[in-house]
Amino acid sequence: MTNVVDFFADLFDTISVAGLGDTIAESFGKISETIGPLLEMLGNTLGPLIEIIFGVIVDGLNVILPILSQVVAWIVQIVTWIGNILGPALVAMQQIWAAVWRAIFDKIQAFWTGLTEGFSALVGFFQWLWGVVSLGFESLVSSISDFFIRAGDTIRSLWDGIVGFFQYMERFINRRIQCNQYRD
Predict the structure, then answer these.
(1) What stretches of the chain show up as alpha helix (H) in DSSP?
(2) CA 120, CA 114: separation in Å to the nearest integer?
(3) Structural domain tally of the chain?
(4) CA 100: distance to chain centroid?
(5) Is the pLDDT of residue 67 over 60?
(6) What pLDDT, in 10s, does the model give residues 36-50?
């Protein structure tokens, strides 16, 4: 802050030492002498004109404002009257709309609940049906498998019996041949 103050102090000292201060003062004095009468003439000319314009505007507003005030009062009365008549009607319409919307929503909700319960029952039926079919299929496959296992066991037993018979016969014949060889 001191630097700025010092700067301007030095500037004014320089202007004063150079003798420019008087010259600048004389120049501003001449500008003032030239512009002063011009501004006075402008003020004398525009002042009354501005006074007339604003006077007309104020007089016009003095005429219009009471009429506008009355129009606004009538609008307020009409809106109040409409509010008194339409207010209860609008409240009733809102209540009817709310009741209709609630009824529609309840019907949609009941439909949706019925649909989901029906779908759930349908899913349950198909799960039950799958259980029955899969159990029946498992039983059928198990029965067929058991049949072939028993048939295989039976055939194996038979085969083992036939093989055993022929083995027995071979041993029997071999023993007879051996016995007969010793006799001879």
Answers:
(1) 2-18, 20-183
(2) 10
(3) 1
(4) 27
(5) yes
(6) 777 677 677 767 777
The whole domain housing 16 covers 2-183
d(CA 58, CA 91) in angstroms, rounded, equals 45
Q: Does pTM top 0.85 for this prediction?
A: no
Contacts of 21 (CB under 8 A, 6+ apart): 12, 15
- Tokens (6 digits) for 61: 């507003």
* Cα distances (angstroms) measured from residue 101 to each of 2, 68, 80, 90, 111: 78, 44, 30, 16, 15
Amino acid at 100: V
Could you please report the per-residue DSSP string of 20-70?
A: HHHHHHHHHHHHHHHHHHHHHHHHHHHHHHHHHHHHHHHHHHHHHHHHHHH
Owner of token pair 């809106």: 79
What tens digit of pLDDT does each residue of 140-184 get?
888 888 988 998 898 898 888 888 888 988 888 888 888 777 665
